[in-house]
Design brief:
By secondary structure, the chain is mostly helical. Helix content is 63%, strand content 0%.
């Protein structure tokens, strides 16, 4: 019987209560529940549009606009869950063969860069939402106030910055 090789240094780290094991169910995060609601809304809207288009040769004008917004929200919420579980997209070539100390330093650098990027997006997204509100910009498809959609960008970017900061703190927390 042969043993499997150890996982690379950048393999997802088993976080207590987060990593699924053979007998441990994965703990649901708030992001999982929000993502499920967003996905259900997206499926329901798309299904309704397909049925109406099939039966009447017409389609709801608002479905594409709302679907795009829901997909963006779903992407950001799912990215937040991926950061918490340490399964986010990354370039692993630099840390695959690295020592644990170097891998930790590189992961810390990546987490810090992510925090900075998400905080920048929070600031820029806030300005965008404020401008949409201040100048009374409406959506092209159905004429809703644009800020109803753009306000979620800074909120979710701030959530992602907080989750990346949690990741950074976990990397440097003393192991018990």
């Amino acid at each position: 019987m042969t043993e499997s090789p150890p996982p690379p240094a950048c393999a997802p780290v088993a976080e207590p209560g987060l990593a699924p094991g053979p007998s441990t169910p994965r703990r649901l995060l708030p992001e999982d529940r929000i993502g499920a609601v967003l996905m259900a809304l997206l499926a329901l809207i798309t299904f309704a549009n397909v049925v109406v288009r099939y039966l009447t040769d017409q389609s709801f004008a608002w479905t594409e606009e709302l679907s795009v917004v829901l997909m963006v929200l779903l992407t950001m919420v799912a990215a937040s869950a991926a950061v918490v579980r340490n399964v986010h997209v990354r370039i692993e070539v630099l840390i695959d063969g690295a020592s644990p100390a170097r891998a930790r330093a590189l992961e810390s650098l990546a987490a810090l860069a992510s925090v900075i990027a998400w905080l920048l997006l929070t600031g820029l997204g806030s300005r965008l939402a404020w401008d949409d509100y201040r100048f009374d910009v409406t959506t092209p498809g159905i004429g809703l106030p644009q800020w109803w959609y753009t306000i979620w960008l800074p909120i979710l970017a701030l959530l992602l910055a907080a989750r990346c900061m949690q990741r950074l703190v976990r990397l440097w927390a003393p192991k018990s």
